[in-house]
Amino acid sequence: MRDIREFRYAVDHWAAGGTGGPVSDLAVRLRLRTAVLLEGPSDLAAVEALAARRGRDLAAEGVGLVPMGGAMNIGRYAALLGPPGLGLRLRGLCDEREQPFYERGLKRARVPYRGFFVCVSDLEDELIRALGTERVEEVIRAEGDLRAWQTFLNQPAQHGRPRQQQLRRFLGTKKGRKIRYGHLLVEALGPGRVPAPLDGLFTSL
What we know:
This protein is α/β, with parallel strands linked by helices. The protein has helices spanning 2-15, 21-30, 41-53, 74-81, 99-108, 123-131, 133-142, 146-153, 163-171, 177-188, 196-204, and strands at residues 34-38, 63-67, 89-95, 116-119. A four-stranded parallel beta sheet has the order 2-1-3-4, sandwiched between helices. Strand 1 (34-38), helix 3 (41-53) and strand 2 form a beta-alpha-beta unit.
């Protein structure tokens, strides 16, 4: 786990204009063959949770999960880690509204788009729809966030909004909440309820 974290840190440093030597060395040491490009830490938490649930050690399989710090970085990360750079096979998740940007960035990096799986709004939205709003609210209560949830619902801006949209917005209202619930919502999924983009990603690895 420590080596994978070092790899992510080295990739971020490289993407910010640093040298790629440490990334290459770590990739060899870890025997990486695939990098999974994720928008941010909440997606990372969800993917790690599903890997644990399915009993998969992705690092041992040669798969490195790489949060990019935002969808706008896809072209840069794909060029560094894909065929023009380290030559790793690339996989990933993207939001539907970011799909055209992903297509352009991956094309510039000569990376096939077929390895990327599209969430309708984002991964949190996919998880909420897979679980159903009542089950998500049960998770919120179990985590001791019921009072915060009720306070949120009383805000004028939330009146009349569909429950799914309210839940999705709630997860993003406090720093770290999306990360925590990215893990929790995956753990709460019933058999056969993994959202299609997330399931497709794991099938492709």
